[in-house]
Specification:
The complex is a heterotrimer. By secondary structure, chain A is mainly α. Chain A has helices at about 5-25, 35-50, 55-60, 65-85, 90-95, 105-130, 140-150, 150-155, 160-165, 165-190, 215-240. Chain A has eleven helices and no strands. The radius of gyration of chain A is 23 Å and the shape is globular. Residues about 245-250 of chain A have low confidence and may be disordered. Chain B contains three helices and no strands. Chain B has helices at about 5-20, 25-45, 70-100. The N and C termini of chain B lie far apart (about 55 Å). The mean pLDDT of chain B is about 90. Chain C is about 85% helix and about 0% strand. By secondary structure, chain C is mostly helical. Classes of the chains: A mainly alpha, B mainly alpha, C mainly alpha. Chains in contact: A-B, A-C, B-C.
């Protein structure tokens, strides 16, 4: 199919979609209306389980099964990307020769990187741990942790980053996080008869030890997401930085 | 203003699809897909918004029985953002693999299915 | 939140999305994608969604542009 056919097809289809979309949208309640039935029920259920962050309660307590599906998609994507990015036979021979790739960065950038690394990791742990109290949780905190580790790359020390993250350890960490989530679900099943139920005593509203199993789910998801993102970026870095040279590429 | 956010969401979706249609580079197509996904996030959050309501997180200043925006659509959107970034990573890995095998990332030149 | 702020942010997000799609070279798209991520995060904050804004900020400004740049580098074969 050549380009002009593609454009004609897109504009016809796009016009049709636009007409249907506008027709659907003007039948919806207008933006900012007061009528949200799910909101009333979700807030009521979250307060009954002593969780100040209603979004975390919806994610891990009321609709935990969807979160299980989402983190399984994440896990499968990391496995798929790692499988696609494994080095081919000729690339493995270049591997040993390219270990000393240090970026030339300014000294101030390097200092900023060294200072930001522990701070970002601390902020990441805080975001994961307080996910049931303040905005945050396993998903956001996991990404902050993983990208915080890569501040070392920005500071020009890819070799230090490489030593700090043995990929096998992080792969095991990702699997541990995923299994911990499923294990907590089965613990809920064993104690109270429904999968992913919230079975630990709820505690007082607003204190750190409250909201039942939501904090444990946050830790499990935080471990899985951070280790998964580190593994994913490790494979991309290996392909782009260590294994140089793809001489057939034309863009 | 009653329907403007929904139109912006639809515009982002169509702009992302247009980017995929006209792209000459697979990486450009993947980034345009990310724009189309952002359109769905804007739509979801706009559905849940209520005027003069606050965020669905209670603390010392917000007691639990005030009016808040809808938390269910926020829960849907927030896991979706992280997971779709990983699916973008999968697509980029596919693009790398295609460039290694066929030597090009131009979609117009990748027409034949080779065994 | 004030309606004016929402209208301004929505328009900026629409314009930034169009700019990302119309940028032809993928290296420049990584930068405009980062900018789009920041604007989208501000819009989510204006729509009273701090969890979603945090998630979008972490993902859309650090994670995805980094992967796009690494992919481009690999595809180009490391030529500067």
């Amino acid at each position: 199919m050549n380009r002009s056919t593609r454009y004609v097809l897109f504009f016809t289809g796009g016009a049709l979609i636009a007409v249907l979309y506008v027709w659907g949208v003007v039948g919806m309640p207008s933006f900012g209306s007061h009528d949200h039935p799910y909101r009333d029920r979700a807030v009521h259920a979250s307060v009954a389980h002593a969780t100040p962050n209603v979004v975390s309660s919806v994610n891990f307590d009321q609709r935990g099964f969807d979160t299980l599906g989402e983190e399984t998609i994440f896990f499968a994507s990391v496995v798929g990307a790692a499988a696609l990015l494994r080095p081919s036979k000729e690339e493995r021979e270049q591997h040993a020769a390219n270990r000393d790739n240090l970026l030339q960065v300014l000294a101030s950038t390097r200092l900023l990187g060294y200072v930001l690394l522990p701070l970002t990791l601390l902020v990441g742990f805080d975001v994961v741990a307080h996910g049931h109290l303040t905005p945050g949780g396993g998903f956001q905190g996991g990404v902050v942790l993983a990208t915080g580790l890569h501040v070392l790359y920005v500071a020009g020390r890819y070799d230090a980053l490489d030593r700090l993250r043995p990929v096998t350890v992080f792969e095991h960490g990702e699997v541990t996080g995923a299994l911990a989530f499923v294990g907590l679900g089965f613990a809920g099943l064993a104690v109270s008869g429904s999968f992913l139920a919230n079975v630990i005593p709820f505690g007082t509203f607003g204190s750190f030890l409250s909201a039942g199993t939501i904090d444990l789910f946050n830790f499990a998801v935080g471990i899985e997401i951070s280790c998964g993102v580190v593994v994913l970026l490790a494979h991309f870095f290996e392909q782009a930085i260590v294994l140089r040279g793809n001489p057939q590429a034309r863009s | 203003m009653s329907y403007y956010p929904y139109f912006v969401a639809g515009w982002l979706l169509l702009a992302g699809c247009f980017g995929i249609v006209r792209s000459r580079n697979l990486v450009h197509a993947v980034v345009s897909l990310a724009i189309a996904q952002a359109g769905t996030y804007v739509l979801l959050l706009s559905v849940g918004y209520q005027r003069k309501a606050t965020a669905p997180v209670f603390g010392s200043t917000t007691k639990p029985n005030t009016n808040v925006v809808d938390p269910v659509v926020q829960a849907l959107t927030l896991t979706d953002i992280v997971v779709s970034a990983t699916v973008t990573a999968l697509l980029l890995a596919l693009a790398i693999q295609i460039s290694k095998r066929h030597g090009t990332v131009d979609p117009d030149e990748l027409s034949a299915l080779e065994g | 939140m004030n309606d004016v702020v929402l209208i301004v942010l929505l328009t900026l997000v629409g314009a930034a999305g169009t700019a990302v799609v119309m940028t032809n070279s993928p290296e420049r798209q990584a930068v405009t994608l980062g900018m789009f991520g920041v604007l989208l995060s501000l819009l989510f904050l204006a729509l009273q969604a701090p969890d979603v804004a945090l998630s979008q900020l972490a993902v859309g400004t650090a994670f995805v542009p980094l992967m796009v740049m690494l992919t481009i580098r690999k595809i180009r074969g490391g030529r500067q």
